[in-house]
Amino acid sequence: MRILYKIGIFLYSLTVRFGSFFNKKAGQFVKGRKNWEANLQNQIEKNANYVWFHCASLGEFEQGRPVIEEVKKQFPHYKIVLTFFSPSGYEIRKNYEGADIILYLPLDTKANAQTFINIVKPEKAFFIKYEFWYFYINELKRQNIPLYIISAIFRENQQFFKNTIWGKWYKQTLFKFEHFFVQNETSAKLLKSIGIKNISVAGDTRFDRVATIAKAVKKYPIVEKFKKNKQLIIAGSTWKPDEELLVEFINQNEGVKFIIAPHEVSDANINRIHQLLKKPAISFSKIEEKGIDSYQVLIIDSIGLLSSLYQYGSIAYIGGGFGVGIHNILEAATFGTPIVFGPNFKKFKEAKDLILDGGAFSITNNNELENTFNRLLSDKKLFNNSSESSKNYVDKNVGSTKFIINKVFNIYNLLD
Q1: Hey, which CATH number is domain 2-204+398-409, 3.90.180.10, 3.40.50.11720, 3.40.50.300, 3.40.1010.10?
Q2: Superfamily for 219-395?
Q3: How many CA atoms are closer than 13 Å to the CA of 122, on its beta-carbon side?
């Protein structure tokens, strides 16, 4: 099975290299890993103490960020190495000030794993949520470097829990982790079913992250002038299917303002949205204070604003539910905003929880979207109950970061 794994990594490498000639992200994936060893050697401080955090992409980074920043705060003698697998994480956070070294994770080969770990010599390593790279896990275990996974979620259909040759081989990697910090009891039970006991149900560190965002939220006076005294629906991280539904609603309604923050902010996509709209709309990069309140739609054509913009929303629509899955709904929930999203939310515990609590609503078509928006906008009791549910859900789930830090570093009462 190890040979098959090595062949799989090799074939993946060839595929990405071939794709790099045609695909921007594949090109970034390949280019970002060139000369990684020399680049890492140039950045490393030989006498420093390092902790290594690995994230698959941007979403996992946001989950790991509270722990990274608490380590830096509580243990300033540690330096942080932060790795990403995906360009969508690295390219956006390559200048993140909370880490001392940021780079792409070299592909999972035995030579790469040994070289990387021998250079960094981390005292501890953290993988965020998932990604179980065989050779990196093996090398950390071989060198007696404790490896933790935080905000992890396990599902019954994963290979670890299947009675197959591949599943039996692959699940052995799990026994090399020092400790599992999982999000829920289901994950803990699945791990226990295969004989793993070093588990804590610690919750999701994203709650700590969004709570921090809410406390240090950035104000946008120009958005306040745009909103004026109107109700405002904020659509965040939208894709084409989301936008088509939203535009149909917008074009048929007066008196409600909208902010659309698409996942793709290319000029072509922003122009496409403008062309669909029949109501007065302006891009964020082009707004001026004079006359801003005359527009009904504000389109966000840059990144980094959305998490703060939710503070102005009456309702939040979260995109992705008509594709691979919804984006982060907690950034909106922390402001006590009722949340609406498409049908593909089943893998997201927070979405299912909020639907049960009345803080979120799933829609599958334009009629359901229109009905849900109109109910929330017109029924004050429904709106208030939904808003309170969202805010309370975040408030009662903070604290995962403190629990992890206490467990890993054996400290108590330092974070009070």
Answers
A1: 3.40.50.11720
A2: Glycogen Phosphorylase B; (3.40.50.2000)
A3: 29
Whole-angstrom Cα distance, residue 25 to residue 32? 10
Which amino acid is residue 268, in one-letter code?
A: A
Q: What is the strand order of the sheet 360-362 is part of?
A: 281-283, 297-299, 256-262, 231-238, 315-318, 339-341, 360-362
Provide the token pair at 139.
């090398």
Can you give the pLDDT at residue 154? 94
User: C-alpha angle 50/52/58, rounded to 5°?
Assistant: 140
- How would you class 358 by CB atoms within 10 Å of its CB: exposed for 0-12, middle for 13-18, buried for 19 or more? middle
Q: ∠187-352-264 over CA atoms, to 5°?
A: 100
Secondary structure (H, E, C), 280-295 = CEEEHHHCCCCCHHHC
Contacts of 4 (CB under 8 A, 6+ apart): 166
Q: What is the mean pLDDT of the chain?
A: 93
Residue 394 in contact with residue 333, Cβ under 8 Å? yes
Q: What is the mean pLDDT of residues 18-39?
A: 90
2-204+398-409 matches 219-395 in fold: yes
More reliable by pLDDT, 10 or 246: 246
Among 51, 14, 10, which residue's Cα sits nearest to residue 30? 14
The domain locations on the chain are: 2-204+398-409, 219-395
Task: Find all residues with CB under 8 Å of 131, minimum gap 6, and list them.
Answer: 54, 56, 60, 85
Q: What span, in angstroms and rounded, lies between the C-alpha atoms of 35 and 27?
A: 15
Check: CB of residue 361 under 8 Å from CB of residue 338: yes
Angle separating helix axes 380-395 and 366-378, nearest 10 degrees: 90
Mean pLDDT computed over 244-257: 94
- Report the 10 Å Cβ neighbour count for 48: 14
